[in-house]
Design a protein that fits this description.
Aminopeptidase, Alpha-Beta Plaits, six-stranded mixed sheet, 13 helices, 23% strand, globular, binds ligand BES, binds manganese (II) ion
Length: 437
């Protein structure tokens, strides 16, 4: 593995130079370029590789090494699309210029999830292009923008993607030096909620006090989403049981960067609040920008509301509950419309059986004797529920490169290179152990 790593890192750097931002229609050609670059890397290892794309979707890559007789087939999942970089001014170095500093590689996608794409490449190279099991790599191209094509891709390419074990390298580890197997993920529901109160903007002195402005209404509406303790106040959402893992509050405050004096929200243990309860956050707002203000009442305003759905709940049902709540709580008879929505289902994994034993042994070996922790995460990978529906008998192993300071989706996203080497090593070892089962 040590021999393969420098080349893999160079390839990862080339991949992150491509701004494959799925949420930005102006960059869909970059997502296509990214798919082609990923396909070229796998194809060069001798894998039978194709780029697949369905109408109105973004391209995924499928690359296959047939199973040697009697050996299982392992599907290796990652995604090559990335989140928007946000304001480049918030980055210490340009977001699409990979930069190494103090043991990390910084760039959008350096971790989430082009590192997953690269880890699979490393595992193949560690076996000199001839892994001891069947391997199908599936590199999705629209994970960060809602995975809309997935059901259709899984339907069209069902036979190509069939596998006994699936490794999803898009989550993370418990800490630097402590690996994890992710055993539950929340689902994700986003809506764009729009409030209309006036048919045109009016002078705030002339009509303020009688005519409700849309931004005030929106803010009041958003404030109904939590109770005074910060618990989610939408009726009908499910919470799961507490996971048995201590996440010290001091550690959480540091890792999340919570300012001194700012209180935590919600009730229950930390991991319950992060992994097995719903959470709601206001993610974005469209209104008059501060430096464009002109003492007018806004006729309309919009917000993105993100709801994380607990494992065991149904994201589709939770979306209906959220929409009902927003419409029912419209202050002062304001017009509330849900303009856009997306849904990813939660999942939990029964992490027992030979594939999990093999994974734990591979992790322990790669992390020099440290056992992996069974951990939940609060984020979402919609692919897992979709895949499970298509292939109910496959064992699902959720791994990944993220660590508590990865800053995925934020400015200065960075891959910890020491941990990345271990993730690659563990995956190569896992393929061998699965062959030996
Ligand atoms: N890698 C993340 C999922 C994740 C987040 C795993 C946090 C472990 C910890 C994945 O790429 C992601 O960000 N998913 C989106 C899905 C959404 C667009 C449906 C998410 O969770 O926001
Ligand atoms: Mn992500």
């Amino acid at each position: 593995m040590a021999d393969a790593l420098p080349g893999v890192l160079d390839d990862l750097k080339d991949l992150v130079r491509i701004p494959s931002v799925g949420a930005d229609p102006d960059r869909h050609d970059e997502v296509r370029r990214s798919a082609a670059a990923v396909a070229a890397l796998y194809s060069a290892e001798g894998l039978d590789t194709q780029v697949v794309e369905v109408e109105d979707g973004l391209p995924a890559v499928i690359a296959r090494h047939p199973a040697p007789p009697g050996k299982p087939t392992v599907l290796l999942y990652a995604h090559h699309d990335v989140q928007p970089e946000g304001d480049p001014a918030n980055w210490d170095t340009p977001p699409f210029e990979p930069t190494e500093r103090k043991g990390r590689l910084y760039a959008r996608g350096a971790a989430d999830d082009k590192a997953g794409v690269a880890a699979h490449l490393a595992a193949i190279r560690a076996h000199a292009g001839e892994p001891p099991v069947g391997v199908t790599i599936f590199a999705e191209g629209e994970e960060e923008s809602g995975s809309r094509s997935l059901p259709e891709i899984l339907r069209q390419h069902h036979d190509l993607l069939a596998s006994d074990v699936i490794v999803i390298a898009d989550s993370g580890n418990w800490d630097i030096g402590v690996p994890a197997l992710t055993t539950s993920l929340r689902g994700g529901v986003n809506v764009v909620v729009r409030v209309d109160t006036l048919d045109h903007a009016v002078h705030s002195g002339m009509f303020g006090g009688v005519a409700p402005d849309a931004l005030t209404v929106l803010v009041r509406l958003l404030a109904t989403l939590h109770d005074e303790h910060g618990n989610v106040a939408v009726d009908g959402l499910i919470s799961g049981p507490a996971a048995d893992l201590d996440y010290p509050i001091d550690r959480l405050r540091t890792e999340a960067g919570i300012l001194d004096g700012v209180e935590l929200i919600g009730e229950g243990s930390v991991v319950e609040r992060l992994w097995t309860k719903p959470a709601i956050s206001v993610l974005a707002l469209d209104a008059t920008p501060v430096d464009k203000t002109s003492n007018t009442l806004s006729p309309s305003a919009r917000a993105v509301v993100g709801l994380r759905v607990a494992p065991g709940d149904s994201a589709t049902r939770a979306l209906e509950r959220l929409k009902d709540h927003l419409v029912a709580h419209a202050p002062w008879g304001a017009k509330v419309t849900i303009e856009k929505e997306s849904v990813g289902e939660p999942c939990s994994v029964d992490a027992t059986g030979p594939a999990y034993d093999a994974a734990r042994a591979a992790f322990r070996e790669a992390w020099d004797g440290t056992d992996p922790v069974d951990a939940g995460v609060g984020g979402s990978i919609p692919f897992i529920a979709e895949f499970r529906e298509a292939f109910p008998d496959a064992a699902i192993l959720v791994t990944g490169v993220e660590d508590p300071d990865t800053r995925a989706h934020g400015a200065n996203e960075g891959l910890h290179l020491g941990e990345f080497a271990k993730v690659c090593h563990a995956e190569a070892l896992l393929l061998q152990r699965l062959a030996d089962l």
